[in-house]
Design a protein that fits this description.
mainly alpha; globular
Length: about 210
Amino acid sequence: MKCEGSTRYNAMFGEVMDWVLALVVGYLLGSIPFGLLLSLAAGKGDIRSIGSGNIGATNVLRTGNKLLAAAVLLLDAGKGFLAVWLVGGWWPEAVALAALGAVLGHCFPAWLGFKGGKGVATTLGVCLGLDWRIGAAYAAVWLAVLAISRTSSLGGMSAALAAPVAAIALGRLGLVPVLVIIALMVICLHRANIARLRAGTEPKVGSKKA
């Protein structure tokens, strides 16, 4: 009995450690501030000093360099995908925590005083890593809402909400809790955008104000 109890405890401890490591790996990869690094490398200065002050692709676009913004978007999505892919090979039962860690790392990087981006591109990456169909639904909603509204924040929030809905529709119920948490995080980080949307003052993509 004692041996069985010890074996069960060791197995439980090992599983918890897998969850912790998955979260940490996701966080470390997600916290790489590509927006800041690429803006500095391109001679655009500290991206945190303009626009919204965050390090995401939308704020990089405010520098006027579309290629730079596209590169940041791809890299931010890529780090989310990489986190899920790596953890899926090491600790497959903990991939959802890697996804959560990657978005947390992007939004709250320790090295930047926990002030990062809003998680939209990184969430695309983790969704593609978790299930390409969820990622496809996320991208489709993001692009459709963006094309119709020309409002980056509305497209990103709509896509974040679409991810758990897509997971439910596809029967990936185990992913729903984490995707709901990520969606709530993305929406919470868009509080100022929501206020401007309600006031009718949210900038449109491509406008001089944006």
